[in-house]
Write a structure and sequence with these properties.
The complex is a heterodimer of chains A (about 120) and B (about 120). With about 120 residues, chain A is mainly beta. Chain A has strands spanning about 5, 10-15, 20-25, 30-35, 45-50, 55, 65-70, 75-80, 90-95, 105, 110-115. In chain A, about 0% of the residues lie in helices and about 50% in strands. In chain A, strands 2, 4, 5, 6, 9, 10 and 11 form a 7-stranded mixed beta sheet that branches. A 4-stranded antiparallel beta sheet of chain A has the order 1-3-8-7, with no helix packed on it. In chain A, strand 5 (about 45-50) and strand 6 form a beta hairpin. By secondary structure, chain B is mainly β. Chain B contains no helices and 12 strands. In chain B, strands 2, 5, 6, 10, 11 and 12 form a 6-stranded mixed beta sheet that branches. The radius of gyration of chain B is 14 Å and the shape is globular. Classes of the chains: A mainly beta (about 120), B mainly beta (about 120). The interface between A and B is medium-sized, with 29 and 24 residues.
């Protein structure tokens, strides 16, 4: 039973380029969360998605960032016109149920984005 | 206001000793869940233990136990008989409510170093 998959594991982009981060949730999970971790800090929530729906995007920057979770395929976090401040580890997590009580969120290995 | 506070940026402990990592939280929601995650130097987030706000007993998972003091709003992680492999960052996190917001709010983390 494969865990949460993220790719790429490491991504280097120059300022102004686009970054696309992919997340495949665990089998049977239909809820995906994206978090960002700046160096030496805790994870910060960005967005929560179900298939074809954005449930909570309260942590997403207003500009340049977008996320989707299509009916088929992985969830994508897209960062347009990257800047140095976007350099961080981006984690995806999935869970089996929105209203489950104790279901922990299973995390992927993360994508380390470096903007040069 | 900080929802999750971890007051120990770093801790150093001798191998085989027990260690307590502090976590206090702030919420007005009567229904919430508390989580601890371990992040080794390789970067992945490993779920350790969960405590629900209505749980009567403190959660335990092997060498990990959660000292849940609801009135004081604290959820300290206790690791018994520490091992060298326990050296890592440890994050406390909270999820508020059974429905609606499912995002996790993380603390800043505690870097634990186990000395031989």
């Amino acid at each position: 039973n494969a865990g949460v998959m993220q790719n790429p594991r490491h991504l280097v982009r120059r300022r102004g380029q686009e970054a696309r981060l992919r997340c495949s949730p665990m089998k049977g999970h239909s809820h995906v969360y994206w978090y960002r971790q700046l160096p030496e800090e805790g994870l910060k929530f960005m967005v929560y998605l179900q298939k074809e729906n954005i449930i909570d995007e309260s942590g997403m920057p207003k500009e340049r960032f977008s996320a989707e979770f299509p009916k088929e395929g992985p969830s994508i976090l897209r960062i347009q016109q990257v800047v140095r401040g976007d350099s961080a580890a981006y984690f995806c997590a999935s869970s089996p149920s929105r209203t489950g009580a104790s279901y922990e969120q299973y995390f992927g290995p993360g994508t380390r984005l470096t903007v040069t | 206001a900080q929802k999750i506070t971890q007051t120990q940026p770093g801790m150093f402990v001798q191998e085989k000793e027990a260690v307590t990592l502090d976590c206090t939280y702030d919420t007005s929601d009567p229904s919430y869940g508390l989580f601890w995650y371990k992040q080794p130097s390789s970067g992945e987030m490993i779920f350790l233990i969960y405590q629900g706000s209505y749980d009567q007993q403190n959660a335990t998972e092997g060498r990990y136990s959660l000292n849940f003091q609801k009135a004081r709003k604290s959820a300290n992680l206790v690791i018994s008989a520490s091992q060298l492999g326990d050296s890592a960052m440890y994050f406390c996190a909270m999820r508020e409510g059974q429905r609606g917001a499912q995002k996790l709010v993380f603390g800043q983390g505690t870097r634990l170093t186990i000395n031989p």
